[in-house]
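Proteins fold reproducibly. Take a tokenised chain:

. . .
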Amino acid sequence: QVQLQESGGGSVEAGGSLRLSCAASGLSYRRYCMGWFRQPPGKEREEVANIDSDGLTRYADSVKGRFTISQDNAKNVLYLQMKSLKPEDTAMYYCAVRWAGYCYFPGSTSWYNYWGQGTQVTVSS
């Protein structure tokens, strides 16, 4: 049974930084795509970054140069380092995984197999 648990969210001022973590358990396949999504209040969930099992990363234009997705395969943890945060980055952030040998971007919510519960990020101006 795959379980994903996000942590690291919080409230910061604009220009600040946060690092989100997604602890994964039950990952039984070597080929996967893992993504970070966010959902602002009243808006659709959108993918902001993903990484495949070869370490290839992709980003939304809105976060390029500010967010970095990475993974610690030994610990089964996915990270999202967020810098120069803006009020428009305020959202619930979710991690997700799909058993696949590739990622595409932006991935749809229906493409991913498993989801975490989310962690809230609030950026004040």
About this structure: Residues 31 and 54 are 8 Å apart (CA to CA). DSSP finds no helices and eleven strands in the chain. The two ends are 40 Å apart (CA to CA).
